[in-house]
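Each record in this resource describes a single protein on a pair of labelled lines. An example record follows, reproduced without changes.
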Amino acid sequence: MQTYMTKGTCSRQILFDVTPDMKLQNVKFIGGCSGNLQAVARLVNGKPIDEVIALLKGIKCRSNTSCGDQLATALEEYKYKLAHPVEDKKNK
């Protein structure tokens, strides 16, 4: 399970899994608007992460971001870490 600490949103953290074929699973937001975020989690379940990024990136709520935008950022960070595993280990 991946963990992402959000910035600028009511939700504090996003948990998620990515399948080997790059589909999003088991999304859970910690904090924030429970009903809305449960809906977002269900709507993105099973979707390719690139599709989720394209759908949610740039949605604004507070602080020039949103929980959806933060999920897109989390997925972009996940993709970056997959593409740059050596750099990720250096930063730990």
Q: What stands out?
A: Residues 67-83 form the longest helix (17 residues). The helical segments are 34-44, 49-56, 67-83, 85-90. The CA atoms of residues 14 and 92 lie 20 Å apart.
